[in-house]
Structure formats: structure tokens, C-alpha cells
Amino acid sequence: MTAASWQPEGPNESGRFCDLKPIEILDWFDGPRLFTFSEEQVLYLAYAWGEGEKTIRYLITPTEEQHIRALGHGQISLLDAVKAPVVWALDVREGKAVSVKRLAWTTVPDSVLPRPHVLLNSAHAPIFQLYAQGNMLFYELTAGQLKKYIEASYSLLRRFFQSVDWSGFDPPVHQISVSSLRLSFGVPGHARIDQRVSELAQQFKERISENGDPTMVDAIVKLCPLQNTGPADSVTLSGQLIPGTPITLRRGDRAVWREKLRLIQQQRVTRRHEMEGRVEEIDWGKWTFTLRELNISLREQLCRADETIVNELRELYGDNSQTRIRIFGDSIQGDQYLEVDRYEVIGPSSVSMPTETAG
């Protein structure tokens, strides 16, 4: 029997699976093809095995979070993930369930099932993904709104991988869909995270906690839906960095995350600095550089800046520049880097005697 000719036969359970809101999307091609969703506090895996005119045909399987993690890490096959004694054949037309049949696994033909031994390779699984839900058809998604989501996601990832000292991390974009606003970031081809994914996930969790990193928490604030406007009612964050239950941001959560950010900033003592020196050791991957030959009583100062400043320094001066600059920035207690937000070009290098101490 071919997949196209199969007509599921089983008890009709109309009224079930009427609201397929994905929790975690594992595969996407012109829409979610493999994803989890919840109904009556039960987690299900939806596998799109076929489609016709305006209709998508799914196989629905009850599942558990540990099975989804194992699937995402390539530890079990896709066939094993969708296999269960009882499954459902679901047809969705234009977003609405039009047929729900309860089936015994033994009645499902091989032609509609994944091939044996097919894995979701963790090297291709999203390390971070964002899925915004709401009235996307009523509201037009503007370029400014899309830019906000991309920049906030990138800021969150960039800061995290700076904090774990991962040089040159620039995640490739796996997917952008604006019909439902989905962003998916992968792992660079040279990166090897299989052995570190649990460790990285734990560190990510710590850095967006009450005692976490203010830059990362600020990025979460920017991802929260606005209280009374905008197309998104909720934004779900998932991926290898967020195993288990995804983070769901809803209208009203922005105030909660703002308060968390305020408390973190209140706990961290910052000091304003101004100093002069010569730029060396620019690291474009980490957005850092070292300032030497200082006019204060320090041998060198490690500096971190945004991508624009670091690129300007790299283009203008290079690693062997003799040009001195004056930098302005904040130091945060416990962080060896100075967060530079502005600089001025002074002129050719001529080492001055120290005249003051930092701070």
C-alpha cells in the first residue's frame, strides 16, 4: 500500500487535537513537520507523513520529554520516537482538524512511517529557536519587529558564548519564517558540542536566572511580547540550550523580566572609567581587544565592546597599530573586562607616565 492510497480506519475521535500549538519544533519545511504539543497535560509528538491539496496528514504519538531529548540528540531513531501501541491519524485542512482516527500501531503501513534508523543528528538540531504565536494574519510583521527579534536572539547567544569563552561563535541561521515568526539557529560546522551540551545548557540556565548575566536577561526582556499591541501573544524559546520544558514568554511577562534585570543590576557594582592606550590583540570572534601602554597604573586592560566598535578598531588600526585611543566604559565587579561604549582617536603612540589609577 502506498502512502497516498492509505485511508486510516479506526474509531473517529473528532474534537481532539483541535489546537496544534507547537511547543518544540524539531523539523520545519514550509511549516512545522515534526513538533511537540500538549493536550490535557499530555505531551504528543506530531509527525507530518503526507499532504494533499490544502491538507497536511499527521501521525500523533503520546511521548515524554526524555524521549524528545533523546531524539534531538540522535540517541533514538525517528521511527522509535513515533512508535506507540496506540496512535492517531490526524488530517488538518487550513489549520483545522477535519479527521481524527484512533489506530493500533499494527494497522499503520510502513509506507507512511519514517525509514528505520533515520536519526535527527544533533549537529543539525537547533541550538536555539524562537517561535512566536499570535494573530500573525491580522497584524503585518514589520521589518523593525523582525529586526528586534533577530538582534535580541543574537545578543543573547553572543553574550552567552562570550561568557563560556567560545571564540568566534557565530551561529548559522537554520530557518526564518515570518508567517508564524520562527527563528532557528544552528551550530557552526566547526563546533563540537555533543559532549558539552548538558554543561552548556546548565550554564545558559544559570545566566538567565536571578543571579545571572544582565546582558542576557535584557535580551529576554526584548523578546517578551508587548503588553497591549503587536502580533505576538507568546514567544517560546527552545533548542539544545533549553532542554526539557521550553521558556514561554507571554504578554505581561516583560514586567517580570524587567524586575529580574533591575535586581541583577542592583547587585552588581559598576564603575565608570576613562583611559588612554594602544590597541593590541583584537579578537573579532569575542569582540574583545587589549589596551596597553596605558596612562594609568595598569600594565594592560582587557576590553569588550559591541561589534561596530571592534570592527572599526580592526579596520582602522590592525594588530600592530601605533595609534593611541581614549576609551570610555564601565567595569562590573567580578568581571575582568571593561565594557567599552565609546572611544576617541588621540594620535601616534608616545607612552606617557602614569598620572592616575583606574576608577
Question: Which keywords apply here?
Answer:
359 residues, alpha+beta, OB fold (Dihydrolipoamide Acetyltransferase, E2P), 3 domains, six-stranded antiparallel sheet, five-stranded antiparallel sheet, disordered C terminus
In short:
The chain is α+β, with helices and mostly antiparallel strands and 359 residues long. It has 3 domains: 24-112, no CATH class; 128-267, no CATH class; 270-348, OB fold (Dihydrolipoamide Acetyltransferase, E2P) (Beta Barrel).
Give your account of this protein's structure.
With 359 residues, this protein is α+β, with helices and mostly antiparallel strands. It has 3 domains: 24-112, no CATH class; 128-267, no CATH class; 270-348, OB fold (Dihydrolipoamide Acetyltransferase, E2P), CATH 2.40.50. It is built from 7 helices and 16 strands. It has helices spanning 65-72, 78-82, 143-163, 197-207, 214-223, 253-267, 307-316, and strands at 24-28, 32-39, 42-52, 55-62, 86-93, 96-104, 128-134, 173-177, 182-185, 232-238, 247-250, 270-283, 288-292, 300-304, 323-332, 338-348. The chain has a 6-stranded antiparallel sheet with strand order 1-2-3-4-5-6, covered by helices on one side. It has a 5-stranded antiparallel sheet with strand order 8-9-7-10-11, covered by helices on one side. Strands 12-13-14-16-15 form a 5-stranded mixed β-barrel. Helix 3 (143-163) packs antiparallel against helix 5 and helix 5 (214-223) packs antiparallel against helix 6 (253-267). The N and C termini lie far apart (77 Å). Residues 351-359 have low confidence and may be disordered.
